[in-house]
């Protein structure tokens, strides 16, 4: 008996994410032509995004993890009309640091904050120091992204019809909050 295919999940991926049909197919262990035939027969509507970000290409090019990809998508969605491809390097750094933060947090939970030296002295573990550095870097990248967005708006590089857009401080708060949410 063949494996059960979760068509509800595949349809939601097809209609609600910017993933390519080939990526969806490979993630679900089926042929992309099978998905194309089913989507055509059932009139599925392919996801269309206002942004130009291609997460599948990012994953392939930069070899970032799934958590970082999710964070890229969240930040791009959060930026909305303020998004520009000029922000992608900062967004990628932010997403990579976020994923690294989660990994280090898991390691720290295993080893603990303090360690004992060979002479019996209790000191902060290297994992704790690394986690503190990553937290600082996440905050800096959030601020940088906020200032980059504000500068792009000032220079007219970001098209916007909405006059009630967030200020640089609002964007920074949102980006930092986005980093805290898991």
Can you put this structure into words, describing what you see?
The chain is mainly α and 182 residues long. The chain has 2 domains: 1-48; 64-180, no CATH class. Helix content is 64%, strand content 3%. The chain contains 8 helices and 2 strands; from the N terminus they run H-H-H-H-H-H-E-E-H-H. The protein has helices spanning 7-16, 21-28, 32-41, 55-62, 66-79, 88-111, 126-155, 168-180, and strands spanning 114-116, 122-124. Strands 1-2 form a two-stranded antiparallel sheet.
In short:
By secondary structure, the chain is mainly alpha-helical.
Amount of beta strand: under 5%
End-to-end separation: 38 Å
Count of separate structural domains: 2
Total count of strands: 2
Structural class: mainly alpha
Gyration radius over CA: 21 Å
Task: Give the uncertain stretches in residue-range form.
Answer: none
Question: In sequence order, what are the helices and strands, one letter per element?
Answer: HHHHHHEEHH
Number of helices: 8
- Biggest β-sheet description: 2 strands, antiparallel
Question: Kindly state the mean pLDDT as a whole number?
Answer: 76
In the sheet with the most strands, the strands line up as 1-2
- Percent range for helical residues? 55-70%
Shape: flat
